[in-house]
Amino acid sequence: MEKEIYIIENNSELGAGTRGASLGISALKISALNAGSSFFKENPTHAIETYNELLLEKNLTPEAIRIDGIQKVYQNISNQVKLTLKENKFPLVLASDHSSAGGTIAGIRGALPNKKLGVVWIDAHGDLHSPYTSPTGNVHGMPLATALNEDNIPNKIKEVDEKTKQTWENLKNLEGITPKILPEDLVFFGVRDTEQPEDKLRKRLGIKNFTVEECREKGIKSSVVETLDLLSNCDILYISFDVDSMDCNLVSYGTGTPVPNGFTPGEAEDIIKELLQSEKVICFEMVEINPTLDNKQNKMADTAFEILENIFPLFKTQTV
Ligand SMILES: [Mn+2]
Questions:
Q1: Cα separations (Å) of 163 from 67, 170, 234, 318?
Q2: In total, how many domains does the chain have?
Q3: For residue 172, is it within any domain?
Q4: Nearest to residue 28, comparing CAs of 285, 310, 302, 272?
Q5: Distance 124 CA to ligand 1 centre (A)
Q6: CA 310 to ligand 1 center in whole angstroms
Q7: Does residue 117 form part of some domain?
Q8: 148: part of which helix (H) or strand (E)?
Q9: 266: domain range?
């Protein structure tokens, strides 16, 4: 029997450092229309409640900007992912900024607390910062630290106020499961733009990163085979796809933090397709399209939609 897919739309851009990611899913829908596709008619999206109006207010937590609103988004996305999995559907999350993934991981663990979760993170960035190490305070750089329950205090660069500290603890403890993933159950693809505290943490935790070069040398297929072998102890897998994993010079600058020397769209698609050969994949997320930053009209969304359309049939074959 085919798996039913439930598309969750998260338009929160509170975690991003630049404005406009909340238009990312709208841009994706425009790409579908322009391609003459009825994808979103056949597959309607279900938006969670967001709080982007907070951007009009003064930010009071510089070490983790808008963390109060982000806490509510984490809860909403977690609740929806949890519900979707409990109904035995496949949650496909289309999100604006990558902080969404922290809520997604919480929801997966909340729905399936006895299953060991592996995460494949396809991204130019490590997203391993905490309020204690982030130079910007942008929470879209922190979702994996919330999942790993990792403050990275040895590499702390700043003090954090009481309110931020408390809310950060709440993020890490969401669903009452801490940590939600173990470092050995996390694999990076394409991470190439990190800060020193993240590098030191990644080294300490021994998180494997398949660089763009390594993937080209070994081939995508064998890199993914190696990944699935590394994650063979996991019962279930989640794929988090940040569009900035792709080369910004090749695709476009239509994403919050564009980085050159990334994957081609074809390579990114192949990585995801090969990962979906494993029946353990129970959730997929795509993030960080920002059409207001696009230097080639709507190219980033067009590219992301093409990938989405090509990988979509594979979600239906997942059986776990
Ligand atoms: Mn990211």
A1: 10, 11, 35, 41
A2: 1
A3: yes
A4: 302
A5: 7
A6: 22
A7: yes
A8: helix 143-148
A9: 5-315
Which CATH number covers residue 69? Answer: 3.40.800.10
Conformational region of residue 241, where left means phi above 0, alpha means psi within -120 to 50, and beta covers everything else: beta
> Which residues, in sequence order, are CB contacts of 44 under 8 Å at separation 6+?
7
User: pLDDT tens, 20-44?
Assistant: 999 999 999 999 999 999 999 999 9
Q: Is 142 within a domain?
A: yes
- Compute the distance from residue 139 Cα to the ligand 1 centre, in Å: 10
Residues 171, 175, 176, 178, Cα dihedral to 10°: -60
Give a yes or no: residue 320 inside a domain. Answer: no
**CA distance linking residue 253 with residue 300, whole number of Å:** 7
Strand partners, 283: 238
Question: How many angstroms separate the most distant Cα atoms in the chain?
Answer: 53
Ligand 1 centroid, distance to 141 Cα (angstroms): 6
The torsion of the CA quartet 177, 134, 293, 252, rounded to 10 degrees, works out to -80
Q: pLDDT tens digits, residue range 235-290?
A: 999 999 999 999 999 999 999 999 999 999 999 999 999 999 999 999 999 999 99
User: How far apart are the C-alpha atoms of 184 and 133, rounded to whole Å?
Assistant: 22
Confidence band of 48 (pLDDT split at 50, 70, 90): very high
How remote is the CA of residue 2 from the centroid of ligand 1, in Å?
30
